[in-house]
Design brief:
about 270 residues; alpha/beta; five-stranded parallel beta sheet; 9 helices
Length: about 270
């Protein structure tokens, strides 16, 4: 009798290949809905109903959060393709996790259990401000490593508040915080010049993930001459303007136990 998990794995590989033909016309034809349902079924059979891979895949957003009848079609097309990139990154990560588990010498057991090594998430939360170039560069770098970047505004709200959405994704394995010079400020009642600062929501989410994951599971990436939050003094951070930021991030990811094929970078 065929192994149902192996069958699901093979089907997931086929679905990944099918995604390469995706374009905005998928929405009108209903192909994308069928594709997503089939992917969810394969993930469910492979990892179990409560797996993080399935949860992350269900939360991928394919349409703008806010739109009107005057919203250009190009905006919908861009959001759809961004959603497809996130979805395929999750599939690649899931396939890699299954392959890693199959190569593991550990005794087999029910992989559908939440404490199974197979259920360990390769999702990485990316906290960002208004610097879209910085956000996209980090997200694409992670996808090239077959990791799945989780970006808050790309996730379905399901009626949740922002903090509830954060709590729903707190079980990621790692978080990358992007501090870009979006705001300016100074200490009140002091005549000092205004300094560039990251947005307050970014600082809040930085503290949230440091508390949820531990400081060693949070990577801070800065851009430009930006004021450092006082509680960050002594914490290692990396300048985005430094061409070596990708190598430094890669080293931290490997140090945190991510199984990464560096050949994917070239």
């Amino acid at each position: 009798m065929p192994d149902p998990k192996r069958t699901a794995y093979e089907r997931l590989k086929e679905l990944l290949v099918e995604s390469e033909t995706a374009n905005y016309q998928w929405v009108d034809s209903g192909e994308s809905t069928q594709w997503r349902q089939t992917v969810q079924s394969a993930l469910r059979r492979l990892f179990g109903e409560k797996c993080e891979q399935l949860k992350a895949f269900k939360n991928v957003k394919y349409v703008p959060i806010i739109w009107s009848t005057s919203t250009p079609g190009s905006v919908f097309a861009e959001e759809f393709m961004a959603g497809m990139r996130s979805a395929t990154a999750i599939i690649r990560s899931a396939l890699q996790e299954y392959e890693d588990y199959e190569r593991s010498p550990e005794p087999s057991h029910d992989r559908s259990e939440d404490n199974s090594p197979l259920a360990k998430s390769r999702n990485i939360f990316v906290v960002h401000g208004h610097d879209n170039e910085m956000k996209e560069a980090v997200a694409r770098f992670l996808e090239n490593l077959e990791l799945a970047p989780i970006i808050l505004h790309e996730q379905a709200s399901g009626g949740d508040t922002i903090i509830e959405k954060l709590e729903r994704h707190r079980n990621v394995s790692y978080a990358i915080i992007l501090l870009s010079p979006d705001d300016v400020g100074r200490v009140n009642n002091q005549g000092k010049a205004l300094r560039a600062r990251a947005r307050q929501n970014v600082i809040l989410e930085l503290g949230f993930f440091m508390g949820a994951l531990g400081r060693s599971h949070v990577f801070t990436l800065l851009r430009g001459d930006i004021e450092h939050p006082s509680d960050l003094l002594g914490v290692i951070y990396v300048q985005f303007d430094d061409a070596s930021w990708k190598m430094k991030l890669l080293q931290e990811l490997k140090h945190n136990g991510f199984d990464i094929d560096t050949n994917k970078l070239f």
